C-alpha cells in the first residue's frame, strides 16, 4: 500500500476465505457497530459484495485497487471517504495529491455500488462505510481473510491534499515507516502485517528504480529481472509485481522479503537486519498467522478517527458534498 503503487492485478479464486471475527475496545469502536444498518439497510452487505464480485469479474485488478483506496483514505484524517471527493473550481481534494494522482483507482466502482445502495436505502449509508466493506470483500475475493466490519461512519465534508502528500513513501527506511504508522496508532508489528497488502498488485518503475540499480540488500538475479522492464531512465510507469503470485492474496510477499526480493525499499526494510525480521520470517512460513494479523490490523485501521453521530454527513453522491 505504498504511495507509488499504480495498478493492481489479481485473480478471483474459489478457495473458502477464513472468517475472523474481531472485537476491539476504544471510543471509536464503541461508536461503530457491525449491525448498524441491520434495520435501516439490511441488504447492504449483499449489495456491496455483489458490486465487488462484478468489479472483479470485469477488471481483475480491482480488489487490490480498492484495498489501496481504503488505505489512502484512512491514513488522511481517518476513514471518512474524503479521498472520494472530486476536485472542483473551488475545492481541492486528495485525488491529485502526489501519491494518488494517476495512481489510485477504483472510484467508479464505489460510485456504482453507492448508486445501488441508494436505490435500496436512500440517504442512509455513508460512502465511508461502503468503502470499508468493499475493501474487505476485495481481499476475501482473491483468497485472503475476511473480517467483521464495524459500521456507522459518516462522510467528511472536507479533504486535505497536504496530508495526502504525506502518506508513507516507498523510499522510506524502517525508522521512518515505524514513525509514520505510530503516528496513526499502529505498532511496528501491525505495520508489518498491513504491508502484506503488497501480496497483490504491482508498483511503478519510478518507485523501485533506485533499489534495483543501487541497493546492496537485493538478490542480484531479481535485480537483473526487474531491470529488463525498468530502464535506468524512462519507463517510469512500467509495472512490476510485488511477488510471483500477485494474483492471489497469500504470504509469498514475505517469502520474497526473506529472499531479498522485496520490490520497494520500504518493503525490504521490513527484513533488513532490523526489528521486524523475526515477524517477517514467521509470516513467510505461517500464512494462517499472517491472515489473522492482517485482518486484525485492517479492523483497527477501519476505526481510524471515524465521523459519527451528527458529525459529517451521508453523501448522496460520493464525489461531492451534499
Entry keywords:
mainly alpha, secreted, 42% helix, heme binding, heme, hydrogen peroxide, two-stranded antiparallel sheet, 322 residues, disordered N terminus, Peroxidases_heam-ligand_BS, 3% strand, 14 helices, two-stranded parallel ribbon
Topology (SSEs and partners):
Blueprint: E1 19-20, H1 27-31, H2 44-58, H3 62-74, H4 107-120, H5 127-141, E2 146-147, H6 161-164, H7 174-182, H8 188-194, E3 202-204, H9 205-214, H10 220-227, E4 239-241, H11 252-258, H12 265-268, H13 277-285, H14 287-302
Parallel strand pairs: 1-2
Antiparallel strand pairs: 3-4
Helix pairs in contact: 2-4, 2-5, 3-5, 8-14, 9-10, 11-13, 13-14
State Rg. Answer: 19 Å
Give the biggest sheet.
2 strands, parallel
Q: How many helices in DSSP terms?
A: 14
Give the helix/strand class: mainly alpha
Q: What pattern of helices and strands is seen along the backbone?
A: EHHHHHEHHHEHHEHHHH
Q: Got a strand count?
A: 4
Mean pLDDT: 91
GO biological process, one term: response to oxidative stress
Site (Transition state stabilizer): 68
Disulfide bonds: 41-121, 74-79, 127-318, 205-230
Binding site for substrate: 168
